[in-house]
Design goal:
alpha+beta, 9-stranded mixed beta sheet, 16 strands, 21% strand
Amino acid sequence: MKWSLHTPEGTADILCQEALLRRRTEETIAGVFGGYGYRGVETPIFEFYDVFANNAGTIAQESMFKFFDEQGRILVLRPDLTTPIARLAATKLKGEKPPYRLSYCGNAFRNERETGGAKLREFTQSGIELIGADHPLSDAEVITATVECLLAAGLENFQIDIGQVAFFKGLAAQLGLDAEQTEQLREMVDRKNSLAIEELVALCDADDALKALVVSLPSRFGGMEVVDGIDESLLGDTARSALDNLRQVYSIIRDYGMESYVSIDLGMVQSLNYYTGIIFKGFTHGVGYPVCGGGRYDTLLAEFDAPLSATGVAIGIDRVVSALMWQKKEVAVQPEITLIACDNDDRAAAYVYARTLREEGKTVQMWLDEGSRDDVKNFAKEAGIARVIWVTADGAQELD
């Protein structure tokens, strides 16, 4: 094969219509975040490996693209954007009073055969990080902003599923599970393998009703009835507090009128070493994996000597665009092009005329060849250009 004619595995060329849709989606989402008071920041595409090495095990070091600088220090293409922003907030915003509302849009890179179901090694994320606020209002704000972003982008039929990591951790502690067993249970719940869960908890010295509750976690999803249906007398302080937190966040979302887009999923258990409270994912038709995800991560900033609470979301631009294209949403239309042509002696007049149209917000192309008016019209017809203007020093005439 001639590799010069192909893109590497996990990357893709993006053609005009999709590129336009991506840009408009990015701009739309950035506009929603800006309306909430989030300020845009940018971090380098590559960072020292140390930035991610201690990141609570959320990103396997084998999945990072690594290389070396001139001093032999290990660098990586950023595998996510939250961690660099945590570094930025901890080191560059020390003099500012929290909470910090920061937004971003950029590419991340992972050396994986699959990324959340999509075979992409380079992917674009737009998101926000709300740092230094631990009230349920902050989690609700991030989730609400996410809903508004997806609506503004053009999605209609989507669902945000909310879970609570601390609730699961509390139950695991009550069962007397060690770290390895807790991770085993997490994987079983995540895969909704009720039989394996039942076998594991049967070995625990705990109340049968508590065991039954844990076994039922994969099927506990829906509205507030999911929370209200739990016998809280079975719960320890950690699980009870987590459930109360989930109830508060959902109540705020309901006050905002967004509850129709949100459901509760107590079987959502991911990245226990990273997330500390509320977690959520967004799903829609046409994409078999989450279009967004986020949650509370109150321990990450401490790794950069800034023990601040934090919550945030990352929206997958590639995934949202795929969903929009699958759902055939008319959200991106190429602008109408006006073609300007002239004789050689009238180039100055043609350029001034074209610049005037561009200042009015119109899209203008110049005829880049010599030829008759018929030649120009034939070219415009083949190129799908509806409007052609012939310019002379005396004025402009639109050609039929």
